[in-house]
Write a structure and sequence with these properties.
Layout (H helix, E strand, L loop, with lengths): L6 E2 L25 E4 L4 H14 L3 E4 L9 H4 L23 E5 L4 H10 L5 E5 L11 E4 L11 E3 L9 H15 L6 E5 L11 H17 L3 E5 L6 H9 L5 E4 L10 H7 L2 E5 L3 H9 L3 E5 L20 H12 L9 H9 L4 E2 L14 H11 L5
Parallel strand pairs: 2-3, 2-4, 4-5, 5-6, 6-7, 8-9, 8-11, 9-10, 11-12, 12-13
Antiparallel strand pairs: 1-3
Length: 381
Amino acid sequence: MLRAAVIHKPGSMNRPVTTPSDPATGPDEANPVVWLVTGYRAGERSQILALAEALGWPFELKTLSYRKSEFRTSLFRGSDLRGVRLQQSSELAPPWPDLVISAGMRNEPVGRWIRKQSGGRTRLVHIGRPWAAPDRFDLVITTPQYRLATHERVLQNAMPLNQVTPERLAEQGQRLLPRVEHLPKPFTGVILGGNSGPYTLGPKNAARIARQADRMAAQRNGSLLISTSARTSQAAIQAFQQHLEVPHYLYHWQPDDDSNPYFGILALSDELVVTADSISMLGEACATGKALYMADLGGYGYPMRPECPAGVDFRLTGLTYSWLMRFGPLRLSRDIRLVHRQLLAEKRAVWLGQPQPSPATGGLSDMQRAVSRVRALFGYS
């Protein structure tokens, strides 16, 4: 059964918009037709939505169901819908959009197919790592860990796009406040990720990070606001808890939890400690403008912090990934240390245990750069 599509206006996700642009005359600045071909990973979906919201144009979500056995179209950079279960997906039919925003290898052929149906009029914006050449898109918005070569159609941002806004932080901070207002201030927020590539958040690293964060809060006579994530193992959580002495609030991540305090912790914390395995979480922390401390996780042969490497929690798949980074093609792996280096160079973060970072400097944000480049595709300043 086809999934119904709903057109959304940024800032009012439930209000329908009924005035798309006229395909014969092209996009109207007030209401261009925008389709979001949503990613199949949470981080990709978040970035797609974040860019759409920031553009301020009405958009329509297109959710697709994929055939796991179909790789030919993606592998050979095709332009068809063979990899999509059409009856279980949102309808792809005229009027064709002015703009498609998407991410992920499986969605690349879909975007090219849509552009073909529109007679070449549809602009394609891809977020993350593209598998086709950049000139197959109108714009690629990426980050350093994917190691893309310089290209006129590639925008290299420091961090992934995110949905952190002053309004969202204020709202989520007020929601969390009743649960933590009994704790002493200042608040130090701690965001725990998990295993990623050659990096492992196991009991050894979790205990070390807990001791460091606990010492920070104790020196300030404050407390910790802690959130785990979907990738945080129970062994890591237990090791972390065992080394806490200061007052704290600890949230155990749960799927589809409306009371998840993640953004509330970002809002209420005076400073933030984030495990450096997650580029998305680092980007969201950066977007708050608060002091950011990155907690490193060691790494097999690729330490996050070479001058002061952390101990390594053994994980066979982590060791295997390090071999892939060393011997495999670059496009099959990513190197998140490149993002860390850029954050350090721009003084947007320091390693946990180093002196407090300087306040964020001025200049265009990653989101502002992305919005400007997308609008330029339509001749808008």
